[in-house]
Design goal:
The structure holds two protein chains of two kinds.
Chain A lengths: L11 H4 L2 H17 L3 H17 L4 H25 L11 E5 L2 E4 H27 L5 H7 L4 H30 L10 H32 L18 H23 L8
Antiparallel strand pairs in A: 1-2
Helix pairs in contact in A: 2-5, 2-9, 3-5, 4-5, 6-7, 7-8
Chain B lengths: L12 H18 L20 H10 L1 H19 L5 H12 L3 H5 L8 H28 L7 H34 L7
Chain lengths: ~270, ~190
């Protein structure tokens, strides 16, 4: 089952302020949205892998997560490239060959590679940030960025609960399978929807019922009693954060310059 | 049909926790379903989990429904295939916000009755049309992967229809189960 949780560590990425990591994520989103050229996309792609490796997240624990992500991303990119016929935008596509109902073109393959690089890069950066950031510092970080504290708490609690519900889904699936439940892959849309009920229903209802207990516990600790609040954990920029911000700024300027030069897909001739 | 007692604040502690739980639930349960792509429409998946923001909107109000759909979609897309599409995030938020009408219209005691369940179906379909309509329209207006009205309509039909069917089937089931689970518990309103 997939693991999306915090792995404690002492690497540079672990030590960075959560605000720096938010900005890093936004920077990567900008790069992935701004460029279509695989020659340019290769730069943030390699950078994201290096970023992830520098975090030294234990591979054994996240192996299934990466297996799932790779299969999903390759599947999504392939399905969308073949079925939405993006290559049709090109007036005269370079046909490489025909397989069954598909026509392989140079343009289609380049588009698929570009899509895989974009998706994978952002997935790597998103997971690197989540897996190296202590959930306890999300809210103080967001509050220091100017978020209202209730909004910061929503994000904080969401990211804390995410791994809990992933595990809950796995536990529910195992329990239902022990009772004879099977994940059916065939059948029509209706049978597939009905097939999800034994999983969706218990997890959703249990989680919804827990809301009241959590809210009571928070109110007992005077949550919401005042318009502003302080945080038990504080965040503070360190020299490494300033250096990272300068680096992100320089990369952003360079990216804006590159954006003026590389505006569309690059198709090898 | 109209609620007589005063509603609590849409930003009370219970609502804040509901937003967080709705977001985390929608994100966590959607990640495995992002692999079920609809052929012919760019990055649109069959998501039974769309019933979660609809359900949360109905039970806790439009703001909670919106946040569950909006933030849940950002997180699930971000960690499952590295995508970020602001207009689809807002579209998912609207799918959760529109059923928030039910929060004001349907009394808690009617949730498990035919009238309450019928409202849930109608609002799930309406929310799906509004949310996916917004996403498809903005895709066309801002030229995000779509260049023709026909492509935008095809996107609306496929994404809107699957979300509407998922929501219309699963939301009343969730509502009925929740109503039954909370029957007689005064605190869980």
């Amino acid at each position: 089952m997939i693991q999306i949780k915090y792995f404690p560590g002492t690497t540079l990425l672990h030590k960075l302020d959560p605000r720096t990591k938010f900005l890093l994520l936004i920077f990567f989103i900008f790069i992935e949205v701004a460029f279509l050229d695989i020659r340019i996309l290769a730069i943030p792609f390699v950078a994201s892998i290096m970023l992830y490796l520098s975090a030294r997240i234990p591979f054994r624990e996240v192996k299934s997560t990466w297996k799932f992500l790779l299969v999903t991303i390759v599947l999504i990119a392939s399905v969308n490239t073949f079925f939405t016929l993006l290559g049709a935008r090109v007036a005269q596509p370079h046909v490489l060959g025909k397989f069954w109902i598909f026509t392989a073109t140079t343009e289609g393959i380049v588009l698929a590679i570009a899509a895989i690089m974009r998706f994978l890069c952002l997935a790597i950066v998103s997971l690197s940030v989540i897996m190296t950031t202590d959930p306890a510092v999300y809210a103080p970080g967001l509050a220091k960025l100017g978020f209202p504290y209730k909004g910061a708490c929503v994000v904080d609690l969401s990211l804390r609960y995410l791994p809990t519900y992933v595990n809950e889904l796995e536990a529910t699936m195992n329990a239902q399978m022990a009772r004879g439940y099977k994940v059916r892959k065939g059948g029509g849309l209706f049978s597939q929807i009905l097939n999800t009920i034994p999983l969706l229903l218990p997890v959703t209802i249990n989680a919804t019922l827990s809301i009241y207990d959590v809210a009571d516990a928070m109110e007992l600790r005077a949550f919401g009693a005042k318009k502003a609040r302080t945080w038990y954990r504080t965040v503070q920029f360190r020299p490494a954060d300033y250096m990272a911000l300068v680096l992100i700024g320089c990369c952003l300027v360079f990216a804006v310059y590159l954006r003026t030069r590389f505006t569309t897909y690059w198709i090898p001739t | 049909m109209t609620e007589t007692k005063t509603r609590e604040s849409l930003f009370s502690t219970k609502q804040i926790v509901a937003m967080a739980v709705g977001t985390a639930l929608y994100a966590a349960l959607t990640i495995p379903f992002n692999a079920f792509q609809i052929p012919g429409v760019w990055l649109v998946a069959v998501r039974p989990t769309i019933a979660i923001p609809i359900f949360f909107g109905f039970i806790f109000g439009p703001i909670t429904g919106f946040v569950s759909g909006f933030l849940g979609n950002i997180i699930s897309d971000g960690v499952s295939f590295g995508g970020f599409f602001w207009n689809w995030d807002i579209g998912n938020g609207l799918i959760g916000a529109v059923p928030g009408i039910g929060y004001y219209l349907v009394k808690r005691v009617n949730w498990t009755k035919a009238s309450g369940l019928a409202w849930a179906v109608v609002l799930a379909v309406l929310g799906s049309i509004v949310g996916m309509g917004f996403a498809a329209a903005t895709d066309y207006v801002f030229q995000i992967g779509l260049s023709t009205v026909e492509a935008a309509l095809a996107e609306l039909y496929s994404a809107g229809a699957t979300d509407a069917i998922n929501g219309a089937i699963l939301t009343p089931i969730l509502l009925y189960a929740y109503g039954a689970a909370t029957a007689g518990r005064a605190r869980r309103l």
